[in-house]
Specification:
By secondary structure, the chain is an alpha/beta fold. The chain has helices spanning about 25-40, 55-60, 70-75, 90-100, 120-135, 150-155, 170-185, 205-215, 230-235, 240-245, 250-260, and strands spanning about 15-20, 45-50, 100, 105-110, 140-145, 160-170, 190-200, 220-225. Helix 1 (about 25-40) crosses helix 11, helix 4 packs across helix 5 (about 120-135) and helix 7 runs parallel beside helix 8. The structure holds adenosine-5'-triphosphate and magnesium ion.
């Protein structure tokens, strides 16, 4: 794929990162966020799936052919085959562009797994630079992080404009919110705004969950209901982008995002 026409070379796209305990709804929130940005013409959007068990492509209805992880493996395999006159960095950057899956209003980059032996520092540094340059081609970058927060904990130098921490209506998930908040502080991550989304929760939050949420110290942005439209899309394997017009969760999240973006 050829790189998109530059959005704004001097200005980084706003970075929205989604984090939270496993299964709480991170990918759903990331996909609905992308959807809202497209709906409100805040494009182009770069969606980054930083979960080795990647599912954001399915949620967005984008078929994933290449991942950065596969690309790394290929790169190690073809190390001896750098075309004459090209640097290793140039070959890698070309391949990274090829890993971008393009769709209407949004491109998707899937990190995939870091497999195999060997030191990835060199490649990861090139990848970080590539992502930083790439960010300036987009108005928004939305990152779906994995539950372990590996990428967040790998000292991202980039400022996070909005960190959305997702929890379900459980004390365990709310506790994980506290740990994520501690981690972002410990790593001195540059996070401009940090909010909690309580997903699949009743509007009347249980006292134990509420107490844990308050302890976590991340302000509650909104409570999303268990949404039958999302469940139906899930059961049918349909992408969230195509079916969400009637989803109350999509509308609620859109409104809440507008209040903090
Ligand atoms: N508000 C909601 N209403 C109904 N179903 C939902 C809602 N939020 C998420 N789900 C469903 O719950 C399941 C888990 O959601 P999702 O995949 O977004 O979580 P996750 O945090 O990304 O999980 P993982 O840690 O495995 O990546 C999915 O089947 C999703 O469709
Ligand atoms: Mg997920």
């Amino acid at each position: 794929m050829r790189p998109r026409a530059r959005y704004n070379q001097r200005c980084m796209g706003k970075l929205i990162a989604v984090a939270g305990k496993g299964g709480t709804g991170k990918t759903t929130v990331a996909a609905l966020t992308v959807r809202h940005l497209i709906e409100t013409n805040r494009t182009p959007v770069l969606a980054v799936d930083a979960d080795p068990n990647y599912t954001l492509g399915d949620a967005l209805g984008i078929r994933v052919e290449k991942t950065i992880g596969k690309l790394r493996e290929e790169f190690f395999g073809e190390r001896a085959q750098i075309p004459p006159g090209m640097t290793k960095e140039a070959v890698l950057e070309r391949n990274m562009h090829a890993a971008l899956e393009e769709s209407k209003g949004v491109d998707l980059l899937v990190m995939g797994r870091q497999e195999g032996p060997g030191c990835y520092c060199y490649l990861n540094n090139i990848l970080r630079r590539f992502l930083e340059t790439l960010s300036s081609d987009y108005r928004f970058v939305v990152v779906d992080n994995e539950a372990g927060m590996e990428h967040l904990s790998r000292r991202n130098t980039r400022k996070i404009d909005l960190l959305l921490v997702v929890s379900d209506h459980s004390v365990k998930a709310a506790r994980a919110v506290g740990r994520i908040a501690e981690l972002t502080d410990e790593l001195k991550l540059d996070v401009a705004k940090k909010y909690l989304i309580l997903n699949r929760a009743p509007s009347d939050v249980a006292p134990d969950v509420r107490a844990e949420v308050e302890r976590a110290g991340v302000p509650l942005l909104l409570t999303l209901p268990d949404d039958a439209v999302i469940s139906r899309a899930d059961a049918a394997g349909a992408p969230l982008l195509s079916t969400m017009d009637a989803a109350p969760a999509a509308r609620l999240l859109g409104r809440a995002l507008d209040s903090v973006l």
